[in-house]
Specification:
Order of helices and strands: HHEHEEHEHEHEE
Number of helices: 6
Strand content: 15-25%
Largest sheet: 7 strands, mixed
Shape: globular
Distance between the termini: 49 Å
Structural class: alpha/beta
């Protein structure tokens, strides 16, 4: 196992991915005390643990998979793409979110083009969900692969957010093609 995996075990995080979010937060100040946070594809819960450590509240985790309980985190075991998911999420949050996080990725098939299409479809679905539940000024963070977000999706995101960037946190494996899309300053849902 790598150094980040060992460090996660030592520091009590459920996954090495926690350090990716910690590094992005350190650089871009995404998480602040009292922020409402949604974690899509949350299992096993490392990103929720980071949000808790930053004193975010409420925190709602959504995943198809089961996730062990984390005190201070509400968990919805469901598909965020279901038609009633945004309404259920808003009810659980008590309103709109300040930050939507997504570290999701489809299981890979080994066929590069197919895998990229499946992953980008998931990122696009997460983005659509985020635009329904984010407060103005909110942030969206999502895992992307290869060249980052597709140009058509990126163009839409740039219209909806003040700042959009692709980031590869140091905790990401160097041989991995994963990057993160970090979009801040959501312009939508204005009255």
């Amino acid at each position: 196992k790598d150094a980040f995996h060992q460090r996660a075990k030592r520091e009590g995080y459920r996954s090495r991915a926690a350090f990716k979010l910690l590094e992005m937060d350190e650089k871009y100040k995404l998480l602040k005390s009292g922020m409402a946070v949604v974690d899509l594809g949350a299992a096993p819960g490392g990103w929720c643990q980071v949000a808790l450590a930053k004193k975010c509240h409420p925190i709602v985790a959504i995943d198809l998979l089961e996730m062990g309980e984390i005190a201070g985190v509400s968990f919805l075991q469901m598909d965020f793409m279901e038609e009633d998911a945004p309404a259920k999420l808003k009810a659980s949050l008590g309103g709109l979110a300040d930050v939507v996080l997504s570290d999701m990725a489809h299981n890979t098939t080994g066929h590069r083009d197919t895998d990229h299409l499946k992953i980008m479809a998931l990122v696009e679905a997460a983005y659509e969900f985020a635009t329904e539940i984010l407060k103005p000024g909110g942030s969206f963070v999502a895992k992307v692969f290869q060249g980052g977000a597709e140009s058509s999706l990126l163009a839409r995101i740039k219209l909806d957010f003040a700042v959009t960037r692709h980031v590869k946190p140091p905790a990401s494996r160097q041989d991995s093609s994963e990057k993160y899309l970090v979009a801040t300053g959501f312009r939508g849902n204005l009255p």
